[in-house]
Amino acid sequence: MAGLAVDERGYSFRRACELLGISRTAYCYRRKKTDDEQIGGLLQRLAASKPRWGFGKMVTWLRRQGYPWNHKRVRRVYCELELNLRIKPKKRLPSRTPQPLWVPGAPNEHGSMDFMQDSLHTGRKFRALNVIDDFNRESLSIEIDYSLPAERVVRALDQVAEWRGYPNYLRIDNGPEFISQKLEDWAEKHGVTLDFIQPGKPAQNAYIERFNRTYREDVLDMYLFSHLDEVRDITTRWMYEYNSDRPHESLNDMTPWEYMAAKAA
Fold first, then answer.
1. Are residues 119 and 126 in contact, defined by beta-carbon separation less than 8 angstroms?
2. Which of 6, 131, 181, 216 could anchor a disulfide with 141, C-beta 3.0 to 4.6 Å?
3. Which residues contact 66 (CB under 8 A, 6 or more apart)?
4. 73 — phi, psi (to 5°)?
């Protein structure tokens, strides 16, 4: 309307703004060209390759890559593309005696270990033994096979120790492989204290449980595997990406390797 008053009635833009009750700044404003298309393309590619990444993880990744956009602009494009994750809320009973999870202050102070299970497209089940360092959530090993008895557990831990060393504590549940005499003898030999959680209390092993969820969403639920070598190959590449590229909110948006380097400096 201000434009019509200026063009057709011959008013000055100042007079037109006064009559219509708008500011001269608003009249002179011209929308700047934005990078919405580039932002949208990057977000869509991220959503396709990382379908379980939400807005927070995406905007952190963009910042780490050096892109200059602020979170408000990225959020607007993210919502316009309808990339929001659909999350079904769960009812959870509050813990009556909450216990804070101990945070290690250095590598190899405390590790966690747990089993997962999935199946090939033939229906044959396989298992994965996950080992992480609680200090920086680093994935140290994922052993995959149809069967993983206590002997394989000990061998996997020795392979990790060859380059990482033995942890002071190792948090585990009460599975048959973990309460075996072989693992107990191994722990006593190498000075490792086995820290068993209470039966039916997986929250006491929260670090590895959170890791298991990420591994399942990014790998086990994403692919239809035909053989174990395929599972191992995809898992190995994912481990490197998890340790080197994936930012963690609990690590101040740093990757496990960046966090360790920062603490060592």
1. yes
2. 131
3. none
4. -65, -45
Q: Which residues contact 226 (CB under 8 A, 6 or more apart)?
A: 120, 121, 122
For residue 208, CA distances in Å to 3, 110, 129, 226 come to: 63, 12, 11, 26
Strand partners, 139: 132
Burial of 214 (0-12, 13-18, 19+ CB in 10 A): middle
Neighbours of 174 (CB within 10 A): 11
pTM value? 0.78
Question: Where would I find the beta strands (DSSP E) of 108-153?
Answer: 110-119, 125-133, 138-145
CA distance 55 to 40: 12
**What is the b/e burial string over 107-133, where b = at least 16 CB atoms within 10 angstroms of the residue's CB?**
bbebbbbbbbebebeeeeebbbbbbbb
Start-to-end C-alpha separation, the chain: 62
pLDDT in tens, the chain (265 residues): 777 877 777 888 788 888 778 887 877 777 665 678 888 889 998 888 888 888 888 989 898 888 888 889 899 888 888 888 776 666 665 555 555 677 888 999 999 999 999 999 999 999 999 999 999 999 999 999 999 999 999 999 999 999 999 999 999 999 999 999 999 999 999 999 999 999 888 889 999 999 999 999 999 999 999 999 999 999 999 999 999 999 999 899 999 999 999 998 7
122 with 182: CB under 8 angstroms? Answer: no
